[in-house]
Fold:
Amino acid sequence: MGKIRDLKNMRFGNLTVIERSGSDKSGNALWLCQCKCGNTKVIPATSLISERTKSCGCLDKELRKSKQSITIGDRFGSLVVLEKSHIEGRKQMWKCQCDCGNMTFVSTGNLKNGATESCGCSYVKSRSKNLGKAREKINESLVEGTDLTKISSDKLPKSNTSGIKGVVWDKSRQKWIAQITFKGKNINLGRYDDIKEASKARAEAENKYFKPILEKYKGEK
Structure:
C-alpha cells in the first residue's frame, strides 16, 4: 500500500478535515471532517480528493429542497399558488388560481417543470385560434359554399377502390353506390349492380351540380 496522503486541515467544499479516522475494509483512509453547517462526518479520502463529497449531506438536502420548494404566492405561467392542498398518489397538490379566474389543483412537479401553466384555458384559446385560422383559410377558397378547386379536380381519395370519383362498393349489399358532395351536403345518387351505371349517375350529377358553377366562375380563383 502506498503512502497515505495527509489531508488534515485541508478544505473540500464545505468540509474541513479534522483528523484521521482509520481505514475502511478495503484499506482506504477515512477522515473525520467538520462541515460548514456544524455537523461532523467520517468520509473516505477518495471521495474528498475527487470532490464527490463536498458536505455532510446538507448541500444535497438544500438542493432537493430548492427544487421542490413552493411558496404561497409563487407564479407559474398564468397560475398563482394559493395554498398547499392534498396528496394525490405520492404527489403534493397545490391549489392555484389562473389569470382567467378559474381554480385548479396542480402537482409540485408539474408546476416546477412548466408542464402546467394554466387551468387549461390557454390550450382552449390556442386551439380555438388555430381552428379559426383554419376556417378562414377554408372560407377564402369557397365560392357560394363550394371549393371550385376541389370539385374540378380528378384526384381520387386514398380510400377509393373503384377508380371513379364518387363511386364506392357497398360490400354488405353487394352494390355500387354513386354519390356527390355539393355545398357541404352529401347527395346519394343510388345503388347499382353495374359500375358503369353508377359512373353514369355520377357524371350526370356533375353536369347538374358542378358544371353551372364552374362555368359561372371560369377563370377565377
The mean pLDDT is 85. The radius of gyration is 37 Å. The first strand starts at residue 11 and ends at 12.
